[in-house]
């Protein structure tokens, strides 16, 4: 090996701390970029590919019972590529801990699933009188066990579990994935044994993927005509195109954030590398002088240090490329299980690897080019005369003059403060890295608070403590009478729901609308009114519309009349107000319960009741017990109960999805904070390394190890605190931006921006500890060297 | 001469450095003493062990074997914190390259040993007096880069003096100075010795500097080659 290359390797290995720091900085930077890039590229792709593979329905119709004959007729409709029948039942099952829980049963089509397929994860498909369970079911039951189910009639049946499946359609209709009950799957032939007729009530349709939205609407109208011609009525039409996974909003939010983080991480790793390289070359100046002194040409020196940097790059890439992809696969497995999508197995994402290679090769060279050129230009005399104690330029620094004025700060602390500002370029880069990590961390909590505000807003429409759903209508008076004697129930309020269509000026069905009937005098709804008023006693054809109508039909106003197709007839309604719901694009209206019942022919009847618990039940936290008692009470009396839930559970489940996002954000913020703290450790190590001789002098004149360490730690903590101040300022716009991306992705619009002190306070603690930890290692190194060694340090 | 009359007493001091697989014997059983108020020069060619000896006397490094008494205290066996206290209160260092803290004023540099000694009252006053004693009463707020080499070495001497140490240990104190400044520093050190009876140990290879000493110890190959009494 030529002497100059031997020198390159000797330099690399000569200062192990510096070697490790530079490699670590580069590796962490490249790892972050690689992981985020792999995530960004694969997350949307995985979800869409996985969802496409189950052949999701484009249109869903809930109709009167039908059989395969109707399916055949629908399949012949122009533009329809396939049609399947499905039955959805609501049961209860006993979980592994002996508690009754709600379960939605999907009955698999007679001739096998072609649309909205479930994917077997374990075991086998069920035969007659057997069941499969969804993989996310919260129970200890598994393949080979038997599950006890309770039918709406109260009959109990034992079903052997044959398999576990992943059902990506959960949350596709009605409720969100996170508030959905557990899912089970039985065969069509089991229906009679399960006290159900041999027929379907859900029609699933896929259409030609090349059709436009208008053409799909036309196909849908044709399908409706076929169903109606068969003498069946339709209670709901759902146009699900473009067919996106029910949790796609979360993934879109995550990918948006990944793009943001990716940009950050490129900058951050750039800063880390730049810091490391400039410090590295500051220490190489004297060697360069010596090499030039013995005849080395500028070209040789540049070539040598280019290889020097290349070795750092190659080592960092060798570590970061395989680990980044795997780290993302691990994270994706976590998120896919929480968000119910199929993540792909580990594979290298070419673009992510390419990005890592390009950044890994170019960035360090770019960071090193200036110091290399500067060092290679320096005169021999200048290079070899540099000493360990930095030669200051004449003229006092403004900040030094300012710090001199600070009263009550002792001399060593003052020196620590001045040291902090000594390498301003390095300080700025370190501050940027740490502050961005901090701002991300703080913003995570603010985003969570903003999302929670939204959930709280929804809760204003669900103020009851318990909600009970029957699978048919029951007389309101009967339910009220039964509950009036029920211990723990303060009051009960009926609700009705109907699916209808908004009729446009041409007389065509323009939108599917969810119609909710509530007593106008209800105290269990605290509406957020945008315009007009809420329902009032005495109202008949009054209707309150949600914000989706305003977005789609901005000309609509209070006093206007709209026509809705309800229960096979067109009914005119007078708009009395607009309310703010959760901001999604579903069309939701509230109408007076009695009038809706009159229209649907269910006078004085309802299938849903909202129950308010007595103050004692609330105070003693016995709502869950009340839920169980109410459920048993009605089942025992022969009522067909679909589900009984507490509002707290519903709200808790609703926040699960948000928690997944928050976890994701925290992991990312943690990663950025890690990059920041490595940056700070690097900066502190370099600061200490450059002041080795100075520290030796301090110790020679009597400073103890503890005093030296204290000074270094003060310096690190000061940088940490400064970064906290900057992070708190940056956190505001960043929180707003992130809240905006996430809210729009999940809810379709941006509501209130909420700021919470939690993130600011936690980050204050973390950055304080991080700064201290980042300073302790260099401080210990500084204290460990013998004074003889440090005074000899050049 | 008794042990109590000697400020420094070294007995059979050895120092072995491990350089890879090779053992370098920098000191091979050095013994001598320094009396109160004496000016001693340690001379020798490069590699003779004079820097190693200075590190031992200055408590900057620990010997491999042998005893070192400073004002009767066996310092060769003290722990790091006790050694820091000894360096702070009993030894004043003057280095060839001055080694002042670059971002601190002359006054701040001189004050620092007082701070490490835990002195809370009159620190500025004491530091100011030390700087006046070396003729820099009008340069209190100057930073090192605003002072000449000679002035910087004066600040270093003031810093060495400020805690009234038992000895001042000067390592090539004129090595980085021109002849005029070098002469001024030599004179200053002698004046301090005459006026306050400060004990001086000067490590040098310059015979002219050694001329100010009363006694010279010549080192060669890690051993005392000979002692020379000059006055």
**Low-confidence spans of chain B: pLDDT under 50, at least 5 residues?**
none
Number of structural units classed as domains of chain A: 4
Radius of gyration of chain A: 34 Å
How many helices of chain B? 7
State mean pLDDT of chain A (0 to 100 scale).
81
Instruction: State the major sheet of chain A.
Output: 6 strands, mixed, barrel
- For the terminal residues of chain B, how far apart are their CA atoms? 18 Å
Uncertain segments of chain A: 387-406
CATH C-level name of chain B: Alpha Beta
Descriptive report:
By secondary structure, chain A is an alpha+beta fold. Chain A has four domains: 1-53 and 243-386, no CATH class; 59-239, no CATH class; 391-460 and 656-794, no CATH class; 461-655, no CATH class. Helix content of chain A is 53%, strand content 20%. Chain A is built from 21 helices and 20 strands. Chain A has a six-stranded mixed β-barrel with strand order 2-3-8-5-7-6. In chain A, strands 12-13-18-15-17-16 form a six-stranded mixed barrel. In chain A, helix 2 (16-52) packs antiparallel against helix 17 (647-690). Chain A starts with a helix and ends with a helix. Chain B is built from seven helices and ten strands. A six-stranded mixed beta sheet of chain B has the order 6-7-8-3-9-10, sandwiched between helices. A four-stranded antiparallel beta sheet of chain B has the order 2-1-4-5, with helices on one face. In chain B, strand 4 and strand 5 form a beta hairpin. The longest helix of chain B has 18 residues, at 179-196. The radius of gyration of chain B is 17 Å and the shape is globular. Chains A and B meet through helix 10, helix 18, helix 19 and helix 21 of A and helix 2 and helix 3 of B.
């Amino acid at each position: 090996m030529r002497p100059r290359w031997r020198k390159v390797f000797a330099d690399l290995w000569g200062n192990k701390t510096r070697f490790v720091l530079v490699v670590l900085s580069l590796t962490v930077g490249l790892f972050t970029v690689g992981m985020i890039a792999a995530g960004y590229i694969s997350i949307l792709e995985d979800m869409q590919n996985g969802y496409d593979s189950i052949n999701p329905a484009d249109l869903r119709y809930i109709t009167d019972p039908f059989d395969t004959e109707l399916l055949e007729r629908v399949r012949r409709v122009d533009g329809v590529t396939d049609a399947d029948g499905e039955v959805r039942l609501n049961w209860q099952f006993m979980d592994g801990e002996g508690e009754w829980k709600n379960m939605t049963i999907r009955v698999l089509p007679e001739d096998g699933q072609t649309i909205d397929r479930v994917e077997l994860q374990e075991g086998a498909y069920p035969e007659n009188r057997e069941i499969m369970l969804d993989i996310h079911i919260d129970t200890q039951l598994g393949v080979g066990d038997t599950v006890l189910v309770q039918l709406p009639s109260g009959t109990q049946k034992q079903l052997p579990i044959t398999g576990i499946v992943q059902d990506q359609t959960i949350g596709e209709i009605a409720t969100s994935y996170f508030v959905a009950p557990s899912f089970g799957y039985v065969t069509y032939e089991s229906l009679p044994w399960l006290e159900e007729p041999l027929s379907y009530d859900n029609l699933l349709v896929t259409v030609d993927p090349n059709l436009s939205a208008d053409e799909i609407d036309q196909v849908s109208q044709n399908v409706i005509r076929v169903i109606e011609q068969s003498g069946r009525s339709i209670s709901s039409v759902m146009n699900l195109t473009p067919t996106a996974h029910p949790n796609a909003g979360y993934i879109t939010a995550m990918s948006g954030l990944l793009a943001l983080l990716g940009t950050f991480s490129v900058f951050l790793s750039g800063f880390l590398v730049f810091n490391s390289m400039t410090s590295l070359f500051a220490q190489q100046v004297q060697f360069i002088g010596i090499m030039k002194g013995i005849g080395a040409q500028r070209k040789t020196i540049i070539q040598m240090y280019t290889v020097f940097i290349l070795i750092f790059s190659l080592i960092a890439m060798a570590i970061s490329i395989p680990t980044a992809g795997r780290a993302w696969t691990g994270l994706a497995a976590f998120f896919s299980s929480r968000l119910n999508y199929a993540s792909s197995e580990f594979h290298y994402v070419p673009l992510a690897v390419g990005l890592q290679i390009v950044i890994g090769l170019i960035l360090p060279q770019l960071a090193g080019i200036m110091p290399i050129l500067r060092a290679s230009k320096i005169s021999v005399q200048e290079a070899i005369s540099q000493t360990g104690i930095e030669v200051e330029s004449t003229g006092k620094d403004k900040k030094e003059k300012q710090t001199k004025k600070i009263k009550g700060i002792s001399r060593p602390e003052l020196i620590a403060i001045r040291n902090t500002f000594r390498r301003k370029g390095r300080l700025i880069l370190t501050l940027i890295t740490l502050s961005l990590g901090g701002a991300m961390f703080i913003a995570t909590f603010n985003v969570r608070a903003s999302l929670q505000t939204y959930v709280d807003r929804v809760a204003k429409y669900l103020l009851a403590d318990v909600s009970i759903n029957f699978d048919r209508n029951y007389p309101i008076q009967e339910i009220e009478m039964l509950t009036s004697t029920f211990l723990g129930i303060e009051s009960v309020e009926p609700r009705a729901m109907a699916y209808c269509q908004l009729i446009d000026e041409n007389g065509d069905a323009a939108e599917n609308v969810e119609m909710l009937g509530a007593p106008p005098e209800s105290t269990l709804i605290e509406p957020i009114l945008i315009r007009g008023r809420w329902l009032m006693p005495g109202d008949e054809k009054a209707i309150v519309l949600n914000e989706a109508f305003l977005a789609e039909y901005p000309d609509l106003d209070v006093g206007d009349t709209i026509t809705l197709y309800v229960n096979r007839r067109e009914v005119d309604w007078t708009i009395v107000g607009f309310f703010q719901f959760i901001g999604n694009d579903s069309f939701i209206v509230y109408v007076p319960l009695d009038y809706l019942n009159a229209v649907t022919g269910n006078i004085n009847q309802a299938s849903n009741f909202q129950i308010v618990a007595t103050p004692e039940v609330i105070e003693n936290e016995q709502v869950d017990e009340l839920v169980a008692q109410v459920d048993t009470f009605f089942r025992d009396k022969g009522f067909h109960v679909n589900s009984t839930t507490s509002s707290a559970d519903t709200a808790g489940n609703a926040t699960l999805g948000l928690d997944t996002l928050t976890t994701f954000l925290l992991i990312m913020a943690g990663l950025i904070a890690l990059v920041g703290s490595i940056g700070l450790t690097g900066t502190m190590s370099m600061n200490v390394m450059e002041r080795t001789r100075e520290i030796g002098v301090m110790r020679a004149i009597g400073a103890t190890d503890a005093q030296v360490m204290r000074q270094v730690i003060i310096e690190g903590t000061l940088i940490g605190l400064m970064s906290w101040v900057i992070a708190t300022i940056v956190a505001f716009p960043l929180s707003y931006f992130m809240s905006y991306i996430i809210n729009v992705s999940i809810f379709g619009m941006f509501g209130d921006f909420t700021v919470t002190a939690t993130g600011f306070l936690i980050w204050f603690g973390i950055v304080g500890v991080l700064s201290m930890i980042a300073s302790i290692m260099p401080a210990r190194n500084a204290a460990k060297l013998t004074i003889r060694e440090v005074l000899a340090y050049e | 001469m008794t042990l109590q009359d000697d400020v420094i007493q070294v007995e059979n001091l050895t120092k072995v450095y491990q350089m890879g697989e090779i053992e370098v014997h920098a000191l091979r059983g050095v013994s001598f003493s320094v009396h109160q108020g004496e000016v001693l020069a340690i001379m020798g060619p490069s590699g003779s062990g004079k820097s190693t000896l200075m590190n031992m006397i200055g408590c900057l490094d620990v010997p491999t074997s042998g005893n070192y008494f400073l004002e009767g205290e066996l310092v060769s066996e003290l722990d790091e914190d006790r050694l820091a206290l000894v360096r702070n209160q009993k030894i004043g260092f003057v280095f060839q390259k001055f080694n002042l803290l670059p971002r601190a004023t002359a006054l701040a540099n001189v004050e620092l040993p007082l701070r490490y000694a835990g002195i809370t009252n009159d620190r500025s006053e004491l530091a100011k007096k030390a700087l006046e004693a070396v003729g820099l009463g009008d340069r209190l707020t100057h930073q090192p880069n605003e002072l000449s080499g000679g002035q910087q070495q004066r600040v270093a001497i003031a810093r060495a003096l400020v805690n009234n140490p038992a000895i001042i240990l000067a390592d090539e104190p004129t090595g980085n100075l021109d002849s005029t400044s070098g002469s001024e520093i030599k004179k200053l050190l002698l004046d301090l010795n005459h006026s306050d009876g400060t004990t001086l140990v000067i490590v040098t290879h310059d015979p002219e500097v050694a001329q100010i000493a009363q006694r010279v110890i010549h080192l060669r190959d890690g051993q005392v080659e000979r002692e020379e009494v000059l006055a």
